[in-house]
Amino acid sequence: MRYDLYYWPTIQGRGEFVRLALEEAGAEYVDVAREPEARGGGEAALIAMLDHVSGGHVPFAPPILKAGRQVIAQTANILFFLGPRLGLVPRAEATRLWAHQLQLTIADFVSEVHDVHHPISGSLYYEDQKREAKRRAEFFRRERMPKFLRYFERVLEGNRRSERYVLGARLSYVDLSLLQLVEGLRYAFPRNMKRHERHCPRLISVHQQVMTRPHIQAYLESERRVPFSTEGIFRHYSELDSASKTRKRK
Amino acid sequence: MRYDLYYWPTIQGRGEFVRLALEEAGAEYVDVAREPEARGGGEAALIAMLDHVSGGHVPFAPPILKAGRQVIAQTANILFFLGPRLGLVPRAEATRLWAHQLQLTIADFVSEVHDVHHPISGSLYYEDQKREAKRRAEFFRRERMPKFLRYFERVLEGNRRSERYVLGARLSYVDLSLLQLVEGLRYAFPRNMKRHERHCPRLISVHQQVMTRPHIQAYLESERRVPFSTEGIFRHYSELDSASKTRKRK
């Protein structure tokens, strides 16, 4: 099966979670909007996909996956679909739902990461909501970032079958997404991430393991990997990464 | 199968999407935290569930559904699990994924509704982020609210098999969630919702149809339905519902 992925061509964004799964599995896929316009690619192809979808399954936003005649949107939903097809999740329903639950929690975390630099509106520039962003960032660094990181650490602790993966004794797409989460947080919040990492050694160990997998390593070093930037979801603005106040929690 | 739902007892919140599905199906369920503490209920039971979960499937946040030995969190994930068991979604995989994609888009909308009154932090009172909330609300009313509403209208338009439901010719849990969405928006943004409703007649018609279903009607009139309030996700603050500026979009 050949897969067509439709996502913004110049950022990692939410599409990256899908790209990592396709790359690890060595799947045959086209990152459509990154193809030249002359070959039916570019943003135009993505926009067309948002506007005209066969069968009435209209997506609200990218990423969008086309698999034969099926058109699927919502990142976690795409991974739920791809997981068993790419051998990146066990087949038992209960395990698939657990993997999906974790992926949805990663999605919630990623949304909060986005809203740190865009607390007022996605249609305003960061510079036009910088004051609010600085205020939101303070709570993000002090409360949300450690809460999510410790949650995933606790989940890893609960996996008695392996210290290398989040589900049982094999790699799953959730591990790939955790890799992206750690990479993104290290890029966006290097100062705070350094401080938090010592409280989530298992998560960091999963990150290290996944980084050395041949397909992932090759992908990350290739031109297919879009670099991090202040256009994406994970953004580095040093004013949002200052040392957290040590005020005690209520 | 008896289901145990764990959710905050005094608000509708995200748990309401699950309650509506269980109620419509006439399922046997206990809304655990709404039971008296003496009978193992109350918030204490919910907190205990968040802290101690068997089998390592730790939830990040409520709602949480217990079905036999399975413990499932994330609202859309719970509905994905319950859908076929309660006869509230067709069994074909492609249709289940489409229903789920819509549910995840509803979840995104609901998160944005929440962040209108809490743009800085969930751990601050509304009054302590009111200025930012007013600014965010302006963009929400002018851009996000119509964008989501028109999206669901377009989805309903795309269903050639019925004008009454979102999937094919039968009620699904997505219709129940759309009911809650319309109810919530009417409560929180009555002034703006009135203006937007004329652009989404199909959505309003689904709402009307679902409201008159015997189980739903009985539930909404019962004491089991927690009322809307300024403690929940949909909150009415008149200053956030003022008439939108008519500034043209770029």
Biggest chain pair contact, residues each? A-B, 41 and 40 residues
* Beta-strand percent range of chain A: 5-15%
Strand order within the widest sheet of chain A?
Answer: 2-1-3-4
Radius of gyration of CA atoms of chain A, rounded to a whole number: 18 Å
How would a crystallographer describe the biggest sheet of chain A?
4 strands, mixed
User: What's the pLDDT, averaged over the residues of chain A?
Assistant: 95
* DSSP helix fraction of chain A: 40-55%
Number of helices of chain A: 9
Give the terminus-to-terminus CA distance of chain A. Answer: 53 Å
Q: In terms of per-residue confidence, which ranges of chain A show pLDDT below 50 for 5 or more consecutive residues?
A: none
**Number of β-strand runs of chain A:** 4
Taken from the alpha-carbon principal axes, the silhouette of chain A is globular
List keywords for this structure.
4-stranded mixed sheet, homodimer
Q: How are the elements arranged and paired?
A:
The structure is a homodimer of 250-residue chains.
Chain A: E1 3-6, H1 15-24, E2 29-31, H2 42-51, E3 64-67, E4 70-73, H3 75-85, H4 93-117, H5 130-158, H6 173-188, H7 190-197, H8 201-211, H9 214-221
Parallel strand pairs in A: 1-2
Antiparallel strand pairs in A: 1-3, 3-4
Fold and architecture overview:
The structure is a homodimer of 250-residue chains. By secondary structure, chain A is α+β, with helices and mostly antiparallel strands. Chain A is built from nine helices and four strands; from the N terminus they run E-H-E-H-E-E-H-H-H-H-H-H-H. The first copy, chain A, has a four-stranded mixed sheet with strand order 2-1-3-4, with helices on both faces. Chain A is globular, with a radius of gyration of 18 Å. The A-B interface holds A 56-60, 70, 72-74, 76-77, 80-81, 94, 97-98, 100-101, 104-105, 108, 111, 115, 119-121, 123-124, 132, 135-136, 139, 143, 148, 151, 154-155, 158-160, 250 and B 56-60, 70, 72-74, 76-77, 80-81, 94, 97-98, 100-101, 104-105, 108, 111, 115, 119-121, 123-124, 132, 135-136, 139, 143, 148, 151, 154-155, 158-160.
